[in-house]
Specification:
The chain has 210 residues and is α+β, with helices and mostly antiparallel strands. The chain is built from five helices and nine strands.
Length: 210
């Protein structure tokens, strides 16, 4: 009986040590968020290799839902080639791009006006973009860059996808810190809003909470 008591006590002490060690080593992530933006938890409704952390979006009208910054933690700590990982990842976000396409094709969209019929033969029209996205979405992207923010070095894939007279701006970032890989996705239909998100993304910091 006494032996069992000491065993349970030792297990409890070990558990407390592990728990306190986890708390001490836990990392928090933060952005500098302007007043006209809101930040909330990011929860994925489907199976993915990412663990959602937070989502930043502007406070505004119906188009605000198509502008956001998402921060996630990659579930694996080993990525052999960050550049290859980002190039593969763009195929996972094509669903979001398709949602933008449905918005612009909506009967109430300005692009549904008969005046745009005369432009449907041009290379920049939506049908041509969708066809090219199915073949190779990377044609809309610049070469992957190595850049720096407040936390350190990150890899960036910068894409501009034309939809008629609009652009869908998409930026994917991958950054390693403390043996964790963080993935940031920025998307917007407005270039000025894209610059706002880049300012927020560049303020990304990882720290140990008090």
């Amino acid at each position: 009986m006494e032996k069992s008591y000491y065993l349970k006590s030792n297990l409890l002490i070990l558990f407390l040590i592990l728990f306190l060690s986890f708390i001490y080593n836990a990392l928090a992530q933060t952005f500098k968020i302007p007043d006209n933006f809101i930040e909330g938890p990011l929860i994925y409704s489907y199976e993915t290799n990412l663990k959602g952390i937070s989502k930043v979006a502007p406070v505004g009208d119906i188009f605000s839902k198509y502008s956001s910054l998402e921060l996630s933690l990659v579930k694996t700590s080993y990525i052999r080639s960050p550049e290859r990982w980002l190039k593969d990842k763009i195929y996972d976000v094509l669903g979001d791009i398709a949602e933008t396409e449905r918005l612009l094709r909506n009967k109430d969209s300005p692009l549904s006006d008969p005046i745009f019929e005369q432009f449907k033969h041009l290379p920049l029209f939506i049908d041509d973009t969708i066809e090219q996205l199915a073949l190779n979405p990377l044609v809309f992207c610049k070469n992957i860059s190595s850049l720096y923010n407040k936390t350190g070095k990150f890899y960036e894939l910068n894409c501009t996808i034309p939809f008629g007279f609009f652009n869908n701006y998409l930026i994917l970032r991958l950054q390693n810190e403390k043996n964790n890989w963080y993935f940031t996705k920025i998307t917007s239909l407005n270039y000025n809003r894209l610059l706002d998100f880049l300012f927020i993304a560049d303020s990304f910091q990882i720290y140990k909470p008090d």
